[in-house]
Amino acid sequence: MTAAPETTVSARFLGLLARDLPPDRLTTDPAELAAHATDRSGTPPGGEPLAVVRARRTGDVTVTLRHANALGIPVVPRGAGTGLSGGATAGEGALVLDLSGMNRILELSAEDQLAVVEPGVITAELDRAAGTHGLRYAPDPASAAMSTIGGNIATNAGGLRCAKYGVTRDSVLGLEAVLADGTVIATGRRTVKGVTGYDLTALLTGSEGTLAVITSATLRLRPTPVATATLAAWFDSFETAAEASYAIARAGVVPALAELVDGPVLHAIDPALSERGAALLVVQCDGAGAAAEAAAVARVLAPLASAVQSTEDPVEAEALLAARRLALPALERLGRPLIEDIVVPRSRLAEAVREIRCISARHDVPVFTIAHAADGNLHPIIVVDPTLDRLPDAAWEAAGEIFALALRLGGTLTGEHGVGVLKRQWVADELGPTAHALQRRLKDVFDPRHILNPGKGL
Amino acid sequence: MTAAPETTVSARFLGLLARDLPPDRLTTDPAELAAHATDRSGTPPGGEPLAVVRARRTGDVTVTLRHANALGIPVVPRGAGTGLSGGATAGEGALVLDLSGMNRILELSAEDQLAVVEPGVITAELDRAAGTHGLRYAPDPASAAMSTIGGNIATNAGGLRCAKYGVTRDSVLGLEAVLADGTVIATGRRTVKGVTGYDLTALLTGSEGTLAVITSATLRLRPTPVATATLAAWFDSFETAAEASYAIARAGVVPALAELVDGPVLHAIDPALSERGAALLVVQCDGAGAAAEAAAVARVLAPLASAVQSTEDPVEAEALLAARRLALPALERLGRPLIEDIVVPRSRLAEAVREIRCISARHDVPVFTIAHAADGNLHPIIVVDPTLDRLPDAAWEAAGEIFALALRLGGTLTGEHGVGVLKRQWVADELGPTAHALQRRLKDVFDPRHILNPGKGL
């Protein structure tokens, strides 16, 4: 009896990897395969991956991709697996390329306010290392303590501070990346400005591992603000809190963060919290003008809020932010959270929230909402029974209506989590047929055989 | 006698444009052709363009490109022609697509802090319109009073304020653009965040008219700062001024602008100015913390400068900035300025300046230098005899050494002016062969027949 052709190809691929990679890189241990098959979204991968390569050097990536490309083996690049859209799910026959072991900070220049890091560096660790030089890495996705820089770049991750400091793309100066055929390219530069050539750095940022595998990144660091002032305001309705958030923008203040938490989330964290109001807005201002800006924010909030607390003490500030940080763990206690990530123009935030409440009622699906209010970035979270094999139809339909709502209000399907597999069926609606077709042709330039993270993103 | 084949194709092209465009769009008037053949760099175009299409609507652009693509006619998109790298030069047989007449502000939303504009809107006019709503358009290239938004996007223009607010790309949320074959695409969105699909907006920004013709842009506006504080400091040497500029960064201050002017430029503006010092550094801080930040800057400058003046009065601030604004007009009185635009990592600014002085001495070519110091963006300006037909060899060699210097110090050929034709021969050195080849393949996706601004950029 001869092996089926696909088995032969897979076996040949694994043989080549075993031959050409250092001995500790390749594993087919079933426990490892299972641990690398999905991400924090819990999306079922559809089968078992072929193997995991634990890359330690750029050379491991080039060897792996060269063979995979020659043999047409799908490759799923992976950082810490904290993605929320299924971008790192690896199904039947796929090779998982685990970059979490490429975790060295190669350079940290206080003079040039930049760092050169491998993709597996944990985001919060880079921020901590920068902190010893009076600097910080501004992007702070909620997963920062676990997620990797490579994964952050793959999804163009946001976070709380991007209200003022921009998303991951705004902190990426240059990249080293490996194309599908194993070619290494360098993009961008070590300077904050530069226009030689097309902006491949921005093109790779947010491409969810479908164009190239990032093996190093030159990242911008920024001075740690000299002062911080934090306010927490309670409101009688989520809509009023949303309106308060854009009254802050209208007053000309750019807060460092502005986080909105709705009543059901407050209740999930602690029923006592939800007795204080139907919504909580936490605003932080930073820099030399922090206190003056916080005072301006307090004046804007006063007529709208039922209570406002403020502090310039960092420990008290953390206590005010605690409700926001506890939101996801609290919802995870209730079931499996399906975290949506829509963005609407800032002025439509209150309208979006009203519509989401209608969608929730219509489908009888509880929706919990937190928002990065300054960006118009809403996370409506549908919590489903974790024992179910697949999402209930009602949850799926509610999610679809939430996406349609985002597009109708002039917004987007995903602000910072990426398309992954979960939002893929709505992508063409947002991009339109012409831009969608153009994007597919760009994919062909980078990855003509479509081995890089197939089925994700576009 | 029959016409040569190329004449037939050109004539056929002009016939199709005359048939399909509204009557006032097409001109072959020799005075118009001459006026549209080069840009502010004064680069000789090498022949006379075929015709000028003065587009008024997106439809004019699609008609023009559809016919040009079918017949293989080169098209040079053009805004106000204020480019400094020859990006809008249009030689023998090229069609000039003049977008300066598409100059409507289509929308200005104070609530969402954005504007939707046609590409021919003058940059300063958008900023002024935003000002009536307490907002501003942050990018402020020195040409802002004349240059267009479309041209700014084509070169990813910088300016003074990008020290704090980023370059043009950081203010472009979305674009409408026409591909070479006449297809209209929409990129990006109306929200500050969003990761659906690859970042075509960033890819088109800085592409110098070689990928698509921009017909509308959705631009981010920002609140006008509540306060501004300005300092001017005089130094005994340019190197000390450069060192002072990064001492500001080291102190954790992000100034709104930090402009450096060297002694020869001061002398060209007014010999009395150069008696005050060998270099001038003008720093502006803005926002609620402006005064506190300016005080911190003054403390940093005090031990290094020979004199420091400061003001919070906007009229006095303009007087302090006047020397910087007068630099280019003053040099234009001396001859034809060839303005270089290199960027080096901030910490290498003083070293770059020393090396530029050596290059100047070695080739006996006077080099005048101004710099956006916070970005490490230097403009070494070689002034040549305007009566010469071509650049003297010594000027060309000095320019080449300045580019090599930028790359050696880990910098780039161009920070904000673009490659155009003038820097083209050095592009491959910066990008490296692999990234260069990849960029050419991207060009093929957008413009397979290479009709869009041929000979520019890559």
From TrEMBL, chains A, B:
<dbReference type="Pfam" id="PF02913">
    <property type="entry name" value="FAD-oxidase_C"/>
</dbReference>
<dbReference type="InterPro" id="IPR006094">
    <property type="entry name" value="Oxid_FAD_bind_N"/>
</dbReference>
<dbReference type="InterPro" id="IPR016169">
    <property type="entry name" value="FAD-bd_PCMH_sub2"/>
</dbReference>
<dbReference type="InterPro" id="IPR016166">
    <property type="entry name" value="FAD-bd_PCMH"/>
</dbReference>
<dbReference type="InterPro" id="IPR004113">
    <property type="entry name" value="FAD-bd_oxidored_4_C"/>
</dbReference>
<feature type="domain" description="FAD-binding PCMH-type">
    <location>
        <begin position="45"/>
        <end position="224"/>
    </location>
</feature>
<dbReference type="InterPro" id="IPR051914">
    <property type="entry name" value="FAD-linked_OxidoTrans_Type4"/>
</dbReference>
<keyword id="KW-0274">FAD</keyword>
<dbReference type="InterPro" id="IPR016171">
    <property type="entry name" value="Vanillyl_alc_oxidase_C-sub2"/>
</dbReference>
<protein>
    <submittedName>
        <fullName>FAD-binding protein</fullName>
    </submittedName>
</protein>
<dbReference type="Pfam" id="PF01565">
    <property type="entry name" value="FAD_binding_4"/>
</dbReference>
<keyword id="KW-0560">Oxidoreductase</keyword>
<dbReference type="InterPro" id="IPR036318">
    <property type="entry name" value="FAD-bd_PCMH-like_sf"/>
</dbReference>
<keyword id="KW-0285">Flavoprotein</keyword>
<dbReference type="InterPro" id="IPR016164">
    <property type="entry name" value="FAD-linked_Oxase-like_C"/>
</dbReference>
